[in-house]
Design a protein that fits this description.
single chain; 209 residues; D-Maltodextrin-Binding Protein, domain 2; six-stranded mixed sheet; binds adenosine-5'-triphosphate; binds 1-O-pyrophosphono-5-O-phosphono-alpha-D-ribofuranose
């Protein structure tokens, strides 16, 4: 197999993605817990893994710095890129939602805090609601508590963060889970190896190819 470069973020998705690779027969035995390495090669020397910031994964793939990327659908919805989205890996499942204090929210002019400003703006614009979107990079649940925003648009998995902060889901926007994305030129040039890797991953997941 010619070498394929795969980009993903460290953290919650990487752990599950590494398990998917193992199930596909792709092993990274050199990986050590708490390693700070940013580049890893699998035991066969055919798959090179690069660890990048989550929001940058689609950029690495679109630009061809990586042939393949593993990234949440939430990130792709926020910042669509010119890549092929080929497999729903069914890991890191969560929902993009509107959340806030229980009860109706203002329906003409709304202040929204979010890590997903594009998703938030589009969702409310389609409902005819004008929004002032405040972009935050984390702890978004704080915004309604301190009166900085009427509602938030964020991802929810267990609902624990919302609950512990007295907030509830007001509306669901979209489901998210990690996707395997592919650079368009890579797919044209390395079709067989990419299809082989995707086939192995799907087989490991128990999905018919
Ligand atoms: N609570 C969650 N449950 C399930 N999946 C989640 C959850 N939070 C995030 N994700 C998924 O994992 C992806 C990466 O999120 P994560 O919180 O690990 O990184 P980040 O906050 O974007 O980046 P960083 O930790 O580097 O600041 C998200 O884009 C989303 O698809
Ligand atoms: O429904 P839950 O299971 O509670 O998960 C949802 C939380 O997880 C994510 O935050 P993350 O842990 O990435 O922290 P952040 O606030 O720094 O983005 C997300 O932004 C929510 O805050």
């Amino acid at each position: 197999m010619e070498q394929l470069t795969v980009a993903m973020a460290k953290g919650r998705t990487a752990t599950k993605a590494m398990k998917l690779f193992e199930q596909a027969g792709i092993y990274f035995s050199s990986l050590q817990d708490d390693s700070r390495k940013l580049v890893l090669t699998d035991d066969s020397g055919q798959v090179k893994l690069i660890f990048v910031k989550a929001v940058d994964v689609p950029t690495y793939v679109e630009k061809g710095a990586a042939d393949i990327g593993i990234i949440g659908k939430d990130v792709l919805l926020e910042d669509p890129k010119d890549v092929y989205e080929m497999v729903d890996l069914r890991i890191s499942a969560c929902k993009l939602v509107v959340a806030g204090f229980p009860g109706p929210y203002p329906n003409t002019q709304l202040t929204v805090a979010s890590k997903y400003p594009h998703v938030a703006k589009t969702f409310f614009t389609n409902k005819g609601i004008r929004t002032d979107v405040i972009t935050l990079n984390g702890s978004v649940e704080l915004a309604p508590l301190i009166g900085m925003a009427d509602v938030i648009v964020d991802i929810v998995e267990t609902g624990k963060t919302l609950k512990e902060n007295g907030l509830v889901v007001l509306e669901e926007i979209a489901d998210s889970s990690a996707r395997l994305i592919v650079n368009k030129a890579s797919f044209a040039i390395k079709t067989a190896v990419i299809q082989q890797l995707i086939g192995s991953v799907k087989e490991g997941m128990g999905v018919s190819t």
